[in-house]
Design a protein that fits this description.
mainly alpha
Length: about 60
């Protein structure tokens, strides 16, 4: 656990604790729902070419192994 000058929690630790608390309070459906919302927002802000490019990058990275 890293503390800053004021002996307060680091951003990393705060994020980890927040994520753990969220996971205790929500189920699988919650994460599916927010993932769907994020996917829809992403689809609205990017075109087909963007998704083709990132898909190719993912395939290339996977095929290197």
């Amino acid at each position: 656990m890293t503390k800053n000058k004021n002996e307060t929690m680091s951003r990393e630790e705060a994020g980890r604790k927040g994520g753990e608390a969220t996971s205790k309070n929500h189920d699988k459906e919650y994460y599916q729902e927010i993932g769907e919302k994020g996917g829809q927002a992403n689809a609205k802000s990017h075109d087909k070419k963007h998704f083709q490019e990132i898909g190719k990058k993912g395939a290339d990275a996977r095929n290197k192994n």
